[in-house]
Amino acid sequence: MTLIAIVLGTLAAGIGSVWLAAALSFGVLARYTQHMLSLAAGALLATAFLHLLPEAFESQAGAKQLFLTLLVGLVFFFLLDKAELWHHGHEHHHHVDPDHTGHVHAGHDHAAHAHGEPPKAGTWAVLTGDSVHCFGDGVLIASAFMAGTRLGVIAALAVLAHEVPHHMGDLMVLRHGASTRRTALVKVSLAGAVTTLGGLLGYWLLEQLQGYLPYFLVVASSSFMYVALADLIPQLQKRLSARETAAQIVWLMVGIGLVTWVSSLAHGH
Questions:
Q1: Tell me: the pLDDT tens digits for 18-43?
Q2: Are 249 and 34 spatial neighbours (Cβ–Cβ below 8 Å)?
Q3: Tens of pLDDT along 123-163?
Q4: What is the C-alpha separation between 236 and 42, in angstroms, rounded?
Q5: pLDDT value at position 86?
Q6: Which of 76-85, 86-95, 166-175, 193-202 has the highest mean pLDDT?
Q7: Per-residue pLDDT at 30
Q8: Mean pLDDT in the chain?
């Protein structure tokens, strides 16, 4: 039963996020991108602080070891981001596009997103980086489902929320690379489907390493916290009108509220 839940959760997060991103990028919802960033940040922070971390700390694992794991996780994702930026900074010409919504995200080819149009050859680098990160997301979702269905549903929702703005960047990069909308959607969907492979491996791995589950949950938390604080929120830190700032805060709270609501729903079952 847990395995079925993992497959469904990873498919929803991996492919569902791509299709939602396409609706936002190519459809009438394109002007709501900033709201999605706020919502994703709220969902990630709520998942990390209200669900994954409490679950890990309720285990037999020592608090000191768990906090050390959290610190190491945050530093690891920071270094991963640095490596990506440094590597791609040497590969791409930077054309700054102030209206671009792509963002720098651990494990992705995001200099392309942050700095405008990459060379056409860069699209495969985007998809490779995308696949690697989606695989990691799958392992994180699997570890959450292994701790409980409720936690798994919340983690899948959080991954879906934070992958939407990122996939929007991917779709834009692929469109610049002369792909049609349909081709871009198919390519990014295939990368998103790798989330399920990660989920299956995570299920098998955690069966063997059940005692390490609290540490996997803390690593998942560090990933969510890093993405929210180092990646999404800085994009929202712009000089805005009072009304726009209020909208950001409202959508941040909606993200937190959504995770709490899904938690209570799943808990009810």
A1: 888 888 777 766 677 677 778 878 88
A2: no
A3: 666 677 677 778 888 988 998 898 888 888 888 988 887 77
A4: 12
A5: 66
A6: 193-202
A7: 64
A8: 76
- How far, in Å, CA of 254 to CA of 5, rounded? 25
Q: Which tokens belong to 213?
A: 């589950």
CA distance 123 to 92: 12
> What letter represents residue 194's amino acid?
V
Rounded Cα gap, residues 85 and 91, in angstroms: 10
Which has more pLDDT, 68 or 29?
68
* DSSP per-residue letters across the chain: -HHHHHHHHHHHHHHHHHHHHHHHHHSGGGGGHHHHHHHHHHHHHHHIIIIIHHHHHTSSS-HHHHHHHHHHHHHHHHHHHHHHHHHHHTTS-----TT------TTS--HHHHHSPPPTTHHHHHHHHHHHHHHHHHHHHHHHHHH-HHHHHHHHHHHHHHHHHHHHHHHHHHHHTT--HHHHHHHHHHHHHHHHHHHHHHHHHHHHTGGGHHHHHHHHHHHHHHIIIIIIHHHH-S---HHHHHHHHHHHHHHHHHHHHHHHHHHH-
pTM of the predicted structure, to 2 decimals:
0.64
Q: End-to-end CA distance of the chain, in Å?
A: 15
For residues 137 and 50, give the distance between their C-alpha atoms in angstroms, rounded to a whole number: 19
